[in-house]
Specification:
Layout: H1 3-20, E1 27-32, H2 40-53, E2 61-66, H3 73-85, H4 91-94, E3 99-102, H5 107-118, H6 126-132, H7 141-173, H8 177-223
Parallel strand pairs: 1-2, 2-3
Keywords: Signal
InterPro entries: P-loop_NTPase
C-alpha cells in the first residue's frame, strides 16, 4: 500500500477508536519473502510505518512474511535472516520487542499469528496519541517522515532532470535525433515522478479530512 494511503487508513483508526471505545491489540506489517530486497518505496513506507506506531507500540507489532511458496527453503531462510539482522531493514524494530513471524499460507498459520495479538495488552499508536492531543496532521511524526522522504526524493529527481538536460544539449549539438527522442521520453518519466513526489505530502491533509468526513458520516448513520 502506498505511503499516503497507508497513513490515511491508519489515521481513521483514531476516530473510529474514540467513537467505539475500542483500542488496538496490535498492528501487522506484511512483507513478501519473495521480494529480493526491502528497497525504494517499500523502505520509505516501512520508515513511515515505524513513525505511525511509535516505539511504545513496537511490542504490539508483528512483522509477517508471506509468499514462502514462491522461494526455496534456503532462499527464504537467507532473506529472513537478512531482514532480521540488518539495521536497514527490520532489526531496529525487532530489537525493541516487535516480533517476526511466517505466514505459511494455511489457516493454522493465520490463527497462530492472530493469537500473538490476542494475548497482547491493547495499545495506542503514536499517531493516535498525537492527534488525540490536538496536533494537526502536519505536526505528526508520520507526516514529518513522509514530507522528509518526499523532499529527498524530489531533490534526487531534480538532479536527474538536470543531468538529462545536459545530455539533451549534447545530443542537440551533435544532431543525434535518436538519442534526443530517448532522452525526451526519459525526461517525461522523471518529470512525472517529480510531480508525484512534490504533491504526495501536500495531498495528505485534504485526503485525511475527506476520509474523516466519510467515517463520521458512516458512524452517524450507524448510530442513527
Amino acid at each position: 500500500m502506498p505511503a499516503v494511503a497507508l497513513l490515511i487508513r491508519l489515521l481513521t483508526l483514531r476516530l473510529y477508536s474514540n467513537k467505539q471505545g475500542a483500542r488496538l491489540a496490535g498492528v501487522i506489517y506484511m512483507h513478501r519473502i519473495s521480494d529480493l530486497k526491502l528497497t525504494g518505496s517499500a523502505l520509505r513506507d516501512f520508515r513511515m510505518f515505524q513513525e505511525l506506531c511509535g516505539e511504545e507500540a513496537y511490542p504490539n507489532v508483528l512483522i509477517v512474511t508471506n509468499m514462502w511458496q514462491n522461494v526455496t527453503e534456503e532462499e527464504g531462510n537467507d532473506r529472513e535472516r537478512e531482514l532480521a539482522t540488518k539495521d536497514l531493514f527490520f532489526k531496529p524494530i525487532l530489537d525493541k520487542h516487535a516480533k517476526m513471524l511466517r505466514h505459511e499460507n494455511t489457516q493454522k498459520s493465520a490463527h497462530s499469528i492472530i493469537q500473538n495479538l490476542i494475548e497482547k495488552e491493547p495499545v495506542v499508536l503514536q499517531i493516535q496519541r498525537e492527534l488525540g492531543e490536538g496536533m494537526d496532521i502536519t505536526q505528526t511524526a508520520a507526516y514529518k517522515q513522509l514530507d522528509k522522504e518526499m523532499s529527498e526524493l524530489a531533490a534526487r529527481h531534480k538532479k536527474e532532470l538536470e543531468e538529462l538536460r545536459e545530455e539533451m544539449a549534447a545530443a542537440e549539438r551533435s544532431q543525434d535525433e535518436e538519442t534526443r527522442n530517448e532522452l525526451r521520453e526519459e525526461m517525461r518519466k522523471v518529470e512525472a515522478q517529480l510531480r508525484q513526489a512534490e504533491n504526495q505530502a501536500s495531498r495528505l491533509g485534504s485526503e485525511y479530512q475527506a476520509e474523516l468526513r466519510r467515517i463520521e458520516e458512516m458512524l452517524h448513520v450507524k448510530e442513527g
